[in-house]
Amino acid sequence: MTSAGFHPHDHHRCIADAMAAAEAHCAANRLHLTPVRRRTLEILLSEHRALGAYDILSRLNADGFGGQPPVAYRALDFLTTHGFVHKIEALNAYVACANPGSDGASHAPAFLICRACGKVEEAEADPAKGPLARAAREAGFAIERAVVEAQGLCPACHDGAS
Amino acid sequence: MTSAGFHPHDHHRCIADAMAAAEAHCAANRLHLTPVRRRTLEILLSEHRALGAYDILSRLNADGFGGQPPVAYRALDFLTTHGFVHKIEALNAYVACANPGSDGASHAPAFLICRACGKVEEAEADPAKGPLARAAREAGFAIERAVVEAQGLCPACHDGAS
DNA sequence: CATGATATGTTATACTATATCAAGCGTGAT
DNA sequence: ATCACGCTTGATATAGTATAACATATCATG
Lengths: 162, 162
Prior knowledge:
2 copies of one chain form a homodimer.
Chain A: H1 11-28, H2 35-45, H3 53-62, H4 69-81, E1 85-88, E2 93-96, E3 110-114, E4 120-123, H5 131-139, E5 142-153, H6 155-160
The first copy, chain A, binds a DNA duplex through helix 4.
């Protein structure tokens, strides 16, 4: 199941479901979804886009949370460690996970990033099945983590442009 | 054909071949492989590892080239634009291309990055054939560029460790 | 209540990258 | 020849991303 980033959907519901899943996962695993962490996740869920740490920080400020970089980075560290948020390496930015708590830390997300509207869709493109896994096998390389980020144009921007 | 990063090889030859290929490609395309650019490429070729821009910069300094960041970044920009060097997004670092000039800009490299020794091997894991391409097709997404970076342990580090 | 683990506040700093303007240096056109 | 132009480099400043280190607060538990 992929995120609905590129298509119209009940976004309020989309946020509520993700927050509920995060809360359930935290409750089940003795994790503290504190106010800063919760708000950070809400901020990221509010858009299907990747936000920079300093974007997030300034929104946290607006909500009365501490104003220094470590505040944002620590919240992001918690959220990424537990699989609620992913970092988009190609953008040095962060995006909410589409299926949080699905299995904690070990799913293998791939991302489709629209360079026009900035929306990010998360796909479960398990690299274990692709040419990457074959190349690794041939090289005797043991993959622990894979960064897979496709950049291009989403359906809407592709049709609208050129 | 993959790079020989993880296996013993005639490294002097490996460097010489890559430099020759770069020179040929530049000559054929009216590109200037100036001293800074050439030296930058040599630095990256000297190791099968990804180096940060400031690492490269300090090595350039040692060789008498200008000492400001733009010097390194401009050389890297030239080299990446023309396919002689790739950026490893997950590390914010740069690595020499294993098969430069193969087709200029449009090959689809994937990387195997050893977290222990730092070596990087470039594989031609064409994403067009993998699950990523299928996910994109289903989503109506037009991929223009794909970042594929696997992190883990190379054969040597995998055997040596635990 | 004491204790230890977890989380947050705060300051400072490190690391990565680019904008901008000035100067040098070839190549080719007139 | 020299002028004009494009490309490359020099140099200063600043923007953007991330973490180290230490102090304080909070809370569950013994």
